[in-house]
């Protein structure tokens, strides 16, 4: 009886072990028949290290079959534990290898851990993509030397530069640099007609500036898709300047007028002051004559002579003035 119970317990434990180890055995057998044998206990250890064995095994088989035999199981486990996307990295490396794009495991994992979409980067390297400039659907605006505003929309064809994907600038930088280059090229044109006649010159000038330097992309072409005229900025600026000059001239004229009025009032004040001094001097004459009488320096006959002279002077003055009632 005891032997039967022991046999049953052993059988149950064996079934449990077979059930638990069965999934690991299937993965081991899958790797074995694929020509990429992985030790059985290594597969079991992945589960103990909280690593999904199926992801690692499938990634190893795919990489090995694609010719990437240098990628080891340890590399795959390390990248998974670092928070990387093992399956995406392996698929991207396979695509890069088939497209003859140089991409090693170290760089691929660094790109993935940096948060970049490695599969999309490889896809863009093979199949270049088009970026609208500006991206929000508006226009880039430049002003030619003759003052005419020109609105432009462009499309930039780029492909990923895998070597500069880590630390390289993104699409926003490409858009900003291309926009700056187009505005600068328009500003260098003498007239707006030169820009409208040969828009390809703008693309050539912008491409020659090496705008993709230190970016994650290589610019293949810049195409002007739309161009139209805007405002006459030069005429508006000249009109504003003329209006400003007019206001300055008016202010200067008003300043001179105010100064003239102030000077006139000052001169009137001076005249009043002189009249006051004259009256003061005239009032001192009778006092001086009285003093002369007292001291005997002036006699009665002298005084009468003075009076006669004054009367004669007043008569001559009145005769020299025209008659106010005389008709002309």
| SS field, number of helical segments | 12
Query: What is the chains' assembly state?
Result: single chain
Shape: rod-shaped
**What is the helical fraction, as a range of percent?**
55-70%
Q: How large, in whole angstroms, is the Cα Rg?
A: 52 Å
How much strand?
Answer: 5-15%
Estimate the mean pLDDT confidence: 82
Q: Unreliable stretches, pLDDT < 50, 5 or more residues? A: none
Order of helices and strands: HHHHHHHEEEHHHEHH
Beta strands, count = 4
Euclidean distance between termini CA atoms: 168 Å
Structural class: alpha+beta
Q: Characterize the largest beta sheet: strand count, sense, and whether it forms a barrel.
A: 4 strands, antiparallel
Provide an overview of this structure.
This protein has twelve helices and four strands, in the order αααααααβββαααβαα. The mean pLDDT is 82. With 328 residues, it is α+β, with helices and mostly antiparallel strands. The longest helix is centred in the last third of the chain and has 63 residues. Helices cover 64% and strands 12% of the residues. It is rod-shaped and about 180 Å long. Among the domains are: 118 residues, no CATH class; 104 residues, Tetrahydropterin Synthase, Chain A. It starts with a helix and ends in an 8-residue tail after the last helix. Strands 1, 2, 3 and 4 form a four-stranded antiparallel beta sheet that branches.
């Amino acid at each position: 009886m005891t032997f039967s119970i022991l046999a049953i317990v052993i059988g149950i434990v064996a079934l449990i072990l077979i059930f638990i180890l069965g999934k690991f055995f299937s993965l081991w057998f899958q790797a074995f028949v694929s020509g990429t044998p992985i030790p059985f206990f290594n597969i079991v250890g992945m589960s103990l290290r909280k690593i999904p064995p199926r992801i690692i095994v499938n990634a190893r088989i795919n990489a090995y079959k694609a010719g990437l035999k240098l990628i080891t199981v340890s590399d795959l486990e390390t990248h998974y534990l670092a928070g990387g996307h093992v399956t995406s990295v392996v698929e991207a490396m396979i695509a890069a290898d088939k497209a003859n794009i140089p991409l090693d495991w170290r760089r691929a994992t660094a790109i993935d851990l940096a948060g970049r979409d490695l599969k999309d980067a490889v896809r863009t390297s093979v199949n270049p993509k088009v970026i609208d400039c500006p991206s929000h659907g508006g226009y880039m605006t430049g002003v030619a030397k003759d003052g005419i505003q020109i609105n432009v929309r462009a499309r930039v064809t780029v492909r990923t530069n895998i070597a500069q994907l880590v630390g390289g600038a993104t699409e926003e930088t490409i858009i900003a640099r291309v926009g700056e280059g187009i505005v600068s090229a328009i500003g260098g044109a003498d007239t707006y007609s030169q820009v409208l006649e040969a828009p390809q010159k703008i693309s050539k000038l912008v491409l020659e500036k090496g705008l993709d330097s230190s970016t994650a992309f290589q610019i293949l072409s810049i195409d002007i898709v739309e161009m139209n005229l805007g405002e006459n900025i030069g005429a508006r600026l000249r009109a504003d300047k003329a209006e400003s000059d007019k206001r300055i001239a008016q202010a200067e004229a008003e300043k001179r007028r105010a100064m003239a009025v102030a000077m006139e009032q000052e001169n009137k004040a001076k005249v009043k002051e002189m009249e006051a001094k004259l009256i003061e001097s005239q009032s001192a004459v009778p006092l001086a004559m009285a003093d002369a009488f007292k001291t005997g320096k002036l006699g009665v006959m002298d005084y009468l002579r003075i009076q006669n002279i004054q009367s004669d002077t007043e008569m001559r003055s009145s005769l020299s003035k025209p008659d106010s009632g005389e008709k002309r």
